[in-house]
Amino acid sequence: MNAAFKIIITWWLIVASGTTVAADTKVVRIGFQKYGKLVLLKNKGTLEAVLKPLGFSVAWTEFPSGPPLLEAINAGAIDFGNTGEAPPIFAQAARVPFVYVAYEPPAPRGEAILVARDSALKTIADLKGKKVALNKGSNVHYLLVKALDRAGVKYSEIQTVFLAPADARAAFERGSVDAWVIWDPYLAAAEAATGARTLSDGTGIVSNTQFYLGARGFVATNAQVLDAVLAELREVDAWARRDIAAVAAQLSPAVGIPAPVLEVALKRQSYGIKLIDQGALAEQQRIADAFGQLGLLPAPVKVADAVRSGP
Residue 84, Cβ neighbours under 10 Å: how many? Predict the structure, then answer.
């Protein structure tokens, strides 16, 4: 990424977050998505108070999915964020300077391959030759790869249509694509609004793990701040596990999805944030190898190279 593009990305993120930062102010810049524990932490508003004695403020920026969040880390525009399992693989192949910090347990029911209610498609094998919409490089990309493999369909035998969630839903509802691979809460919303049928979710196929990632330089020099962020995330995680109805009610206005629909999604989510470990890394390496074998990565990926060192 050239210097001019980095400047543009950084400027856009500052404008998007509505944050004005003095030159001598220390700021933790957090990228979050429309759904998940980070948006709950943002809404709770406790992180700012925890970090103030450490001399840090917080700047929040929303992203539509994991890939652009990692592009922002690459541009030096954010310090911390979360994505599904596939975006870090593609980012590492592109030499984005990030490290894995923590993860949530698997949530395989939180993503699925959908078809229209009246679709003639009944099995994954029926996708051969069909148009399938998905967000390129996202967690559902891996679900599609593995589901096809299990059904004996080559990845090259379907027509992938790479679209962000909003555009993919529009194409799905128009019938411009035959299937849509998507994650919660978009999954729950589509099921409720369109009666879409699930050909397969991730159960028995993929883990669908959420990862917390940090810019390599930030993680190496701000251990105390990072640990404080993780501690607050665990508090939010514990609250969400205890009171799903309250979480759904809080999230509903922000994401524009009715609370009862969000409750469906939240019950498919996982809870219990853990520091990155060898088991999670080994699974990530299997994902990297699968994408590499399909020729989808520009370079081989050794996941262990993207691990936080030190305490």
Answer: 29
- Note the pLDDT of residue 96: 97
Q: Mark 191-216 as b/e (b = at least 16 C-beta within 10 Å).
A: beeeebbebbbbeebbbbbbbbbbbb
Of 111, 66, 63, give the one whose Cα is nearest residue 88: 66
List pLDDT tens digits, range 184-215.
999 999 999 999 999 999 999 999 999 999 99
Q: Which residues contact 107 (CB under 8 A, 6 or more apart)?
A: 202, 207, 208, 209, 210, 268, 269, 270
d(CA 56, CA 165): 34
> In this structure, how many other beta carbons lie within 10 angstroms of the beta carbon of residue 174?
8
For the chain, the 3-state helix, strand and coil shares in percent, each to the nearest 5, are 50, 20, 30
User: How many Å apart are CA 29 and CA 44, to the nearest integer?
Assistant: 17
| Domains located in the chain, CATH noted | 3-107+209-306 (3.40.190.10), 108-201 (3.40.190.10)
Which residue type does 222 have? N
Cβ–Cβ under 8 Å, residues 214 and 193? no
Residues in a beta bridge with 183: 111
Sign of CA dihedral 139, 140, 145, 146: positive
For the chain, which ranges sit under pLDDT 70?
1-25, 310-311
Q: What is the DSSP letter of 307?
A: B
Sheet holding 26-33, edge to edge: 56-63, 26-33, 80-83, 211-215, 98-103, 274-275
For residue 228, the SS3 value is helix
Contacts of 234-238 with C-beta under 8 Å, sequence gap 24+, read: 234/273, 235/46, 236/37, 236/40, 236/41, 236/44, 237/37, 237/104, 237/271, 237/272, 237/273, 238/271
pTM here is 0.87
Note the pLDDT of residue 5. Answer: 37
- Helix axis angle for 37-44 and 223-242, nearest 10°, is 100
Residue 15 is predicted with a pLDDT of 42
